[in-house]
Write a structure and sequence with these properties.
With 54 residues, the protein is an alpha+beta fold. 26% of the residues lie in helices and 39% in strands. The protein has one domain. A 3-stranded antiparallel β-sheet has the order 1-2-3, with no helix packed on it. The two termini are 14 Å apart. The model has no long low-confidence stretch (mean pLDDT 91).
Length: 54
Amino acid sequence: MNINKMVELSKAIDNGFPNSKIKKWVSEENLEDIELDTEHGYVKIEFYPKEDSE
């Protein structure tokens, strides 16, 4: 995932989980494995980005 898409994704996460902290972010070939600590508990996100058509 390129840096611009990572920034967009981090903004979306911040909107969905305000006051959360990213505990782990691992980028793999077709997967972004993200873990958050929130005031209510722990959240695990497996994000599969769409492939670019370019």
